[in-house]
Amino acid sequence: MKEIKEENNSNNISSSNNEMKKRSMKWTAVLFYIYLHVFGVVGLYFLFIKVKWMTVFYFIFLVTSSSIGLTAGAHRLYAHQTFVATSQLRLFIMLAHTIAGVGSIYNWVFWHRMHHKYYGTEKDPYNHKRGFFYSHVVSNLLSAPSDLKKYARDIDMRDVDMDGYIWTQQKFYWILFIVLGFLLPIHVAVVYLDESYTNSFLIIGAARLLLTTNISWLVNSALLVWGLKEGDKFPVDDNSVFFLSKSYWLNYHYMLPWDWKNDEFGAYETGFITFTIKIWRELGLINQLRTATCNDVREALYKVASSEMTMDEALAEVKRNAEETAYKEKLIYRH
Ligand SMILES: [Zn+2]
C-alpha cells in the first residue's frame, strides 16, 4: 500500500514537472528522416563527384533561398516581428519557406514562440538542458504534448493569423510543398540542366531537404553549438553582463529576440542573413527595423541596479523605445 502511494506520488510529481513526458515518438517521422538522411548523404556525395556545375549552382541557389525563408522569414519576420515587410516580400518568403520542406510557417512560428516563452524549462519543446541530440533531433520527432491547449493559450498568434500568405500556406501546405518544393525542383534539373532523374532525386530532392531540415532544426538548437555553456566564464543562467557588448549573440537573442540584427548562425549584425535584410531595407522592401543600442541596454541595466525595476520591466521599456524609434525612422523615410 505504501509502495503504491509512493508510486502515485512520484507519478504526480513527474507529470507536473515534466510536460514533455506526455509527448510520444512519431515513428513514421523517424522512418522518414532516416530515409531522408540516408538518401541525402548519398546525394551530397554525388554532388561532389558526379554532377554538372550548373546543378551545383542550382542546388546552392535552392538551399540559400530556403534558408532565407526560414531565418529572415519565419524566424526574424514572423516569429519575432523584428521588421515589417511588403506584400511582395512576404509572398517570396512564403514560397522560399515552402520549398524548404519543414512544415508551415504558422507551425514553425508557434513552436518557436513556445520555445522562447518556456525557454530552458520542461515546457520548452527544444529544451537545451536535455543536450544537443534531444534539442536538435529528438524534439522534432515527438508528437505535440497531450495538454498542449492548456499552455498554448499563452502563445499569442494573432499577428500571424492575420497574414493571408500564412493562411494559404497552412491550408494548402502539402500540395504546395509536393509541387513547388519537391516535384518542380527535381523536374527543372532534369529538363533544363540535362541531369538524370536519379541524380536529381538524390541531390535536388534528398540532399537539399537534408540541409534545409537541419538548418531549420539548428535555429532551435544553435545555442548549444555557439552559445555560452554552463560553467563558462559568464554562466548561461546569469547573462546580465555579456549583452552590453552583444557578444555571445545567441544568449543575447534569448534576452532581446526582437532585435533584427540577431543572426541565427553568425556574429551579431555581420552574418549573411543580416546582410540580406540590409539589402531588403535598401530596396525599400522592409521598414520599421527594431534594434537596441549598447547604450539602451546599459541604461536598462542601470535602472535595474538603481531602482525597484525588474529586468523584465527594463527590457520591455527597451523594446518600447526600439518600436518608437523604428516607427519614427519609417516616417522620416517616407517624407
Ligand atoms: Zn528566436
UniProtKB/TrEMBL annotation:
It is a multi-pass membrane protein. The keyword Translocase does not apply. One of its GO terms (biological process) is unsaturated fatty acid biosynthetic process. InterPro entries: Acyl-CoA_DS. Its main location: membrane. The histidine box domains are involved in binding the catalytic metal ions. One of its GO terms (molecular function) is iron ion binding. GO terms for cellular component: endoplasmic reticulum membrane. Its cofactor is Fe(2+). Keywords: Fatty acid biosynthesis, Fatty acid metabolism, Lipid biosynthesis, Lipid metabolism, Membrane, Oxidoreductase, Transmembrane, Transmembrane helix. It comes from Cyphomyrmex costatus. Belongs to the fatty acid desaturase type 1 family. The chain crosses the membrane at residues 30-49, 55-79, 91-111, 172-193, 199-219. The keyword Transport does not apply. It is found in: Membrane. This is Acyl-CoA Delta(11) desaturase.
